[in-house]
Structures are given as structure tokens and as C-alpha cells.
Amino acid sequence: MKSKYELLAPAGDFECLTAGINAGANAIYFGLQEFNMRARAKNFKISDLPKIRKITKEKNIKLYLTLNTIIYDNEIKRLESLIKKVKPFIDAIICSDISVMQLCKKYKIPFHVSTQCSVSNKETALFYKKLGASRIVLARELNLNQIRKISKIIPVEIFIHGAMCVSVSGRCFLSQHMYNQSANKGLCIQPCRRPYTVKDNEGNELKVNNQFIFSAKDLCTLPFFEKIKKSGAISFKIEGRNREPEYIDTVVKVYRKAIDKKLSKQEIQQSMVELEQVFNKGFSSGFYLGLPTSDDFSNVENSNAKKSKQFIGKILHYYDKIGVGLLKLNTGNLKINDEIIILGKTTGIVKAKIVSMEIDNKKIIRAIKGQIIGIKMPKCRKNDDLYKIIKRDN
Hints:
Layout: E1 6-11, H1 14-23, E2 27-31, H2 49-58, E3 62-67, H3 76-86, E4 92-95, H4 98-106, E5 111-113, H5 122-131, E6 135-137, H6 144-150, E7 156-162, H7 174-179, E8 198-199, E9 205-206, E10 218-220, H8 225-229, E11 235-238, H9 245-260, H10 265-277, E12 283-284, E13 307-319, E14 324-328, E15 333-335, E16 339-344, E17 348-353, E18 357-359, E19 362-364, E20 366-368, E21 372-376, E22 385-391
Parallel strand pairs: 1-2, 1-11, 2-3, 3-4, 4-5, 5-6, 6-7, 7-11, 10-12
Antiparallel strand pairs: 7-10, 8-9, 13-14, 13-22, 14-21, 15-20, 16-17, 16-22, 18-19, 18-21
């Protein structure tokens, strides 16, 4: 039975695209190398679009292109040319500048109003509906009751997991002010994530318990996801076009389960453990259950993940009949029972545990840098990357 909800996953490259689809996403949102709010992600080229469309169409996956930066006059012609080129390959465009919306209408492409527009009331929602929007990605600063009211005006999409910006719906000028790298052109270098010392003009320092005074914890709605399902939203969005495939794989799988059934307390606890394994800065309920407090600020600069990965080498060949991959160790070492991840554009992400290794048909329990080894592993492909999982003590 088809769910009435859409699970929307991010993709910054082909590995993430495949990971999101295989994990159970109903739709993918992505950016090209221009006009999107994640300019520092790998992103895709226009020439990639036929391949992306082929992959998604085969599995009935919707495809949404983000063109949600601010637009200047000298960019309009280039923008229009791009919109004409992408039309055959996408289902909708996510945008915030009215110039993009007008061009979408001109070329009869459905458009979704980006969260950058901070739609936070029924009147604004009605305005964009009259303008021709088919969906609104609501402001992140709304509680569940406010979302429910707006969802009666127009179909709405909300974020359910991922990084939160301390600024209103991400419209921040800190990166622009400090480094001339505009967040509103997709170039944010996230100075908010760093530790800060507060001083007055006389050099007196303010003693604070947490130096990360601009850095919010990540949004996580899993503990109250049944309330999210009753919010009136039809699309649930995962943030993370800069994230790695293992993040996409884990987060999409967790929320796929939560959409398809009501999770027990034990299942929620187990799923939270899974979410803690991949990139996170601690978890917060955002604005959904009430205004954030001091507890919603992160206390780490980078990631609080329980696991990380180390590149080991590339697959030289895969023997289908015996299920063995041939690998040269470029760095590091491997041993029996190590957890590994295989990543590839077509393969996506495959997780496994090493149960058998050989060199020249002789069983081994450990391999070191420079050796060429055969490993019993799931289906993969030549030139796929192999990583070893490293458990971290946080």
C-alpha cells in the first residue's frame, strides 16, 4: 500500500543518490553547480541529468531541483537558459526568488517555495498559492499547530532531520560579513559552528558554559514522529546535501520505518542509537514542540557521531560466482570481523563485516598496506571504494 507521505532525501553526488533510493526515499532533491544553497557540495552537472532521470524513473522516484539562491540581474539570462535545459528531467524546482518562480510558470514547470522564503502564516501561503506554487517548504520556526493550519491552504513540506541554522530559516550574513562568502548564494563556510569567546570593548571576557554559542543541535523528530505524521504535511524532508552516503543510508532507513508503521518505544530507542552512529551535533526537537532553549545548542564543533570511516582502497575486480572482491590496500589494515563500507556511483552504499580473507588462495586473518587480497563480500563493482568503520569514543 502506497504511503500518503513522501520521504524526501538529499543527494550531493551519485553515491548519495543511489543510497537514498535504495534506503527507501520516495523523492530526491539535488543541486546543480549553479544557483543552489549548497554550492560547496559536489553537486551534479547538467550533463548528469539524463542518467539521474533514468535511475529515478525506473523506480518511480520524484526528482526536485534546488534553484534557491538569491538572483541578480546579470544572472537572469543564464538562469533562464538553465531552466529550459532541465525541464525534461525534473518533476519540480525548489526556489525562493520570484524571478525563478516566474520562469517556472513561463516554461510550465511545477515549483515548490523554498524554506528560504520563511513562509510562516496562512496569508503568505495563500499568496504563493495564487502565484502558482504547488507546494511550500515551510519556515523551520513553526510549531506543529501552526503547520497544521497552513497545510489546509496548500500542500506543505517540512524538515524532519538534519542540521539547523541559528539564523531565521538560514538567512544568515555571518559568513558574508567575516569572509565575503554569502550563505544566500550557497557559499556559507559555517563560522557559527566554531567556539567563541565573548569580550567587551575593555577586553573583559564573558564566562560562558558553552563556547558554541551560535551552533544549534541537529533536528531529530523521530521521538515524536507520530505527531509529525498528524501535522498535515505531505512531504518529510531530510537535510544533508553535504553529507556522506552512510548518513543518507542510515537516516532514510530509520525514517522509512517510522513512516510505514508506528514504532514502539524500544524501536525508537534502537533507531536513535542508529542515528547517533552517523554525523550529528546532538539532537533537538527544533521549534515543533515549543521554542528552543539553551539545551538546543550544540557542544561540539564538528560531529558527535559514534562511528567514522577510513579509506582503505579500491575494488580491483568482483567475482560474481563466488562473491569475492579483489582489493589492494592503499592504506591502513584490515582484519577478520572488521566492519566495512563499500561506496560506488552505481552500487550506492553496502555495509558488511569481513568474515573471510585470502592471499594467493591462503586464508589470512589480517592484511596490511600494499597487499592485494580477496574478501568475501556482497555484490559490488570494479573501482568502488572500500572503507573501514572506526568506532569513536565521544
